[in-house]
Predict the structure.
Amino acid sequence: MSVDPKHIQVGMEVFGLDGELIGTVKSVTEAEIEVNRPWARDLMIPIEAVQAILDASASHSVHPHVVLTIRARSVDAQGWPHPA
């Protein structure tokens, strides 16, 4: 199942499958999201790597965020590009 990038908003936090914070959404296109990482270079993550977009309607106990299909520690090993 693919996610609709129209539901991803700038400022949403991005988490790995393990629940570890990766960063925040800086920009969104139809194909990828730019993620601002506080302790590493920003990263362009393909929409296909997004497992879920959770918002307040899914659970009132969480703030809107994006969950990837991989663990946070695996992000750098994916070879995804950095923004220019």
Summary: DSSP finds no helices and six strands in the chain. The chain has one domain: 5-78. The radius of gyration is 12 Å. Residues 5-78 form a domain with the SH3 type barrels. fold (CATH 2.30.30.240).
